[in-house]
Design a protein that fits this description.
single chain, five-stranded antiparallel sheet, 3 helices, 9 strands, globular
């Protein structure tokens, strides 16, 4: 009986330890992908899944376009699950990092010919100014407005911000 109890406790300890270690391991980072759009224009993209404060998953896509060594644009595209969310347009996204850094990214969804015909769960924002001043991989919060005036917040962990900073430094 005592030996059986020992083995049960040892098994529980081992399983708990494995679960705890799994929680401490950083999530895998997505690689930055490079796409040639034309002979002289490249797109660099980071795509990761984040959850909002209601537990719903969003694809967060940050990309920049570079032509002949010049950065043309830096964009953030948020894609929610169709039928679960409807993003308000035009409504800017607010990005916060720490107590002092607050940025506003302009909603450009309706100006993109490819997006103005897709489902309402997509929003695209001008991130150029944000990326110009973003310089540390501290966590961020993205606040976006849904149709009907409801706000949603997505926490952007440091490893994601670090990937965005790496994207910022990609060749141009």
């Amino acid at each position: 009986m005592l030996l059986r109890r020992f083995w049960v406790m040892l098994s529980v300890f081992c399983v708990s330890s494995l679960l705890w270690c799994g929680l401490l391991v950083s999530p895998a980072q997505a690689a930055i992908h490079t796409y040639p759009e034309t002979d002289d224009q490249m797109m660099y993209r980071s795509r990761l899944s984040l959850r909002d404060d209601q537990g719903l998953a969003w694809q967060t896509i940050v990309f920049k376009r570079v032509r002949e060594g010049q950065v043309l644009d830096f964009k953030l595209r948020l894609v929610g699950f169709p039928g679960q969310v409807a993003v308000a347009h035009p409504a800017d996204v607010v990005l916060r990092q720490g107590m002092n850094d607050v940025w506003q990214a302009t909603d450009e969804t309706e100006q993109d010919g490819q997006l103005n015909t897709v489902v309402s769960s997509v929003g695209q924002y001008d991130l150029f100014g944000v990326m110009r001043s973003l310089d540390r991989s501290a966590p961020m919060v993205l606040d976006l407005m849904l149709e009907g005036g409801e706000m949603r917040s997505l926490v952007v962990p440091p490893y994601v911000v670090k990937e965005w900073l790496a994207l910022k430094e990609m060749p141009h």
